[in-house]
Structures are given as structure tokens and as C-alpha cells.
Amino acid sequence: MSGSSTWTPKSALGRWFESRLPIGGLVHSSFIAYPTPRNLNYMWTFGAILSFMLGAQILTGVVLAMHYIPDSKLAFTSVDLIRRDVNWGWLIQKLHANGASMFFIAVYLHIARGMYYGSYKGPREVLWLLGVVIFLLMMATGFMGYVLPWGQMSGWGATVITNLFSAIPVVGDTVVTWLWGGYAVGQPTLNRFFSLHYLLPFMIAGVVILHVWALHVVGQNNPTGVDIKTEKDSVPFTPYATLKDATGIAFFLILYMYFVFYIPDYLGDPVNYVPFNPAQTPAEIVPEWYFLPFYAILRSIPNKLLGVIMMFGAIAMLALLPWLDTSKVRSAVYRPVFRLVFFIFVAVCLGLGWVGSQPPQGTLLVVGRVLTALYFAYFVIVLPLLGLFEQTKPVPASIADAILAKNPGEEPAPQVNG
To answer: N- to C-terminal Cα distance for the chain?
Structure first.
């Protein structure tokens, strides 16, 4: 669904190159003339924010890898030396460490926006599935990156999480031994995690390209959930969407820089500023905050294998969302019951995150199990039934009709030909 491009290079060399590799025309049709729904709000800027954060994480990660030593005896010291002795090393390290949290804040808001406005519904199923793949790769990358400083929480977090694979029948112990590179977390484990942590961001970048490609094939969703039908429904991507994306990135950068310069260690665990000691277990082993809802689901199930299945099943539910939601109306704007249920679901996820950060004992175990049940009930019970019984509001015939109904005096946006 890329816009038609009439762009032609001005120079003879440019025209010669374009006739053999039309990169300029591709960029122009995809990011300048590309028709964008004219009613997008600022929740649609998180795609650009995530692209920016991915580039920032790759750039700072490559620089850190130049100074990091993946040795179980030197890794912790090398991270400390990066902060102290490398020129601007403290800034690069804090940008990377806090950038991971900012990345996950943006991706959770991006997913929530897609769920609220029904961006997973046809014909965008493949687009949504590619997004879930990106999310899984992000989780793997974030977990392995957390291990690399080789602090007390890093080492024991790696021990606990990788040991979950031992629950797999028959081959579980073999898988864990392979992940560890031995019979305990040690030097081979660190080598494996460092290699994969360096590789996975480039895999994410590759899937992001597919994600954007799929987006341009089927077109962007919008707050009404109605596809573009006429020229009045859209505006060119540049300058309208690009300026809005730039504004969203600028405000997100303010939040990002606040953490980097004022509270750089707020999102980290103090225990991780102690070198890893395999002979001393921390009082509580918890992952980074962005894994806490899934960690709470894991801990709420008494059976280890079933807990692992439920934890990964929580992510699988996201992948199955296009087929679990039976409603023909995309946007929550026209689904009043779904809108209420969605915000209850968000509260359930936040509750799971809080439970995951607390010791698994007493009343909290019961709360965790109730919230886990509500989480899965949203996908397998509520969404299928809502599609059958919910009374939805009338959906506008077009994006332009929805805008003009809301703002009767508004003129159609100017059109810019390719």
C-alpha cells in the first residue's frame, strides 16, 4: 500500500543508479508519499519511538562490546571500568541499561494500543504475528543482557531462568546442560549469552524490516478501525506523520534522559552491584521489571512444568489474539463493553507485575493465582463471547466521515502528489 512515487533524481549519476537499484524511489513511496490515515493520534508514534530505541540500543551496545570482557572473573570489573575509565563510558553504559527499560515501556504501550484499536484483526494478522516475534526476541535479548554484568542477581537470575528448561520431559536436563555449557552457570554460559546478546538485536532489526514491509502492504490501522477508502481519508506520510513522530520521540527522549541523568540506577536491583557468588543465594531472586508479570504467572502455578507452559502460554495468547477476538468491529471506540474489559485487563497485568516483585507467600500466592486466571480468561473466554453478544456503536463509513462528524467545520487535509 505504498504511495505512488514520481520521484526522479536530478543528476545523471543519480538517474543511472536509480535505474539499476531504485532505493530512492522505494524510500519516497514508502516514507514520503505513503498514504497515512489522517486521524492518527500520538499512540501511533510508538512505532517510530521503538525504531529509534532499537538503533540507540544497537549503537551503544556495539560501543560497550568493544570494552566488555566476557570472562566470569573479569566481567563485573570490566563493566565497572567502563563506567570509570572509558571516555564517556558512564553515559554510554547508562544509556544502554536504561534504554532497555525505555524500549520495553514503548513496546508495552505499542502492544496496548494495538489491542485497544484492534490492529491485530484482518488483514493485519501477519503484521501482528511479526510484532509478537519481535517481542519474544526482545525478551530473550533483555534477559541475556541482564546477565552480562555478572552481578549477584544476574548470575542467580540466569541460574533460575535457564533451569526452567529442565521441566521439559526427556530432554530438559540436556537442554539446561547445553545452555550452561557444563553442570552449573559459569564461563561457558557467559560466552553463550554474550554471543547471543550481540546477535539478537540484528535479528530484531531484520524482523522489524519485515514488520514495516507487512505494514506497508496492508496499510496502517487508525482509531476508527476503518481502512482508507478515498483520498480524503489520508495524508502523505511526510510531513504529517513524520512531524508527529518527531514530536513523540522528543517527548519520549525527555523521559529517557530523566532516568539516565537523574535516577540512572532506579530501575536496577541493588543486589546486582555485588559480584556473582555461586555459593551465596540472594534472599529474593527477581528478574527485571519488564518480566515481572510473566514471572508472577510462573510462580503462581505449583507444578514446575505447568508453570513454564503457562508462562509461555501467556505470550502465545498474544499471538492467537486475531483468532480469539470474534468481534467484527476493530476499534474499542465503538465497543463500550470491550473498552471496560480492556482496562480491567490492563489492571490485571499491572497487578501481576506487582505480585511478581513481592515474595511468593501467603495471600500474595492466592492473588497471583486469581490474576493469572483473569489474564487467561480475558483471551479464551471474554473475547470470544464479547464478539457474539456485545452491542457495538455504529461504525462510520469512512475516516473522513468520522472526522467531519466530530468536527463539522473541518476542511479535508491538503493532498501532496508523489
So the answer is: 14
Nearest residue to 415 via CA among 245, 219, 237, 215: 237
Q: What is the DSSP string of 302-314?
A: SSHHHHHHHHHHH
DSSP state of 389: H
What is the DSSP annotation of 147-199? HTT-BHHHHHHHHHHHHGGGGSTTTHHHHHHHHHTSSSSSHHHHHHHHHHHHH
The contacts of residue 354 (CB under 8 Å, 6+ apart) are 292
Query: Whole-prediction pTM value?
Result: 0.93
Per-residue CA distances from 23 to 86, 141, 212, 214, 238 (Å)? 38, 31, 16, 18, 17
Q: Is the pLDDT of residue 64 over 50?
A: yes
Cα-Cα-Cα-Cα dihedral sign, residues 373, 376, 381, 383? positive
| φ and ψ at residue 264, rounded to 5 degrees | -65, -25
Average pLDDT along the chain: 91
- Residue 140 belongs to what H/E stretch? helix 125-147
Residue whose C-alpha is closest to residue 125's, from 302, 322, 313: 322
Kindly calculate the radius of gyration of the chain based on its CA atoms and give it in whole angstroms: 24
Q: pLDDT value at position 195?
A: 96
The whole-angstrom separation of Cα 398 and Cα 224 is 9
The set of cell numbers assigned to 389 is 453478544
Q: How many CB atoms lie within 10 A of CB 277?
A: 12
Residue type at position 176: V
Burial class (CB in 10 A: 0-12, 13-18, 19+), 141: buried
- What's the grid cell of residue 166? 529442565
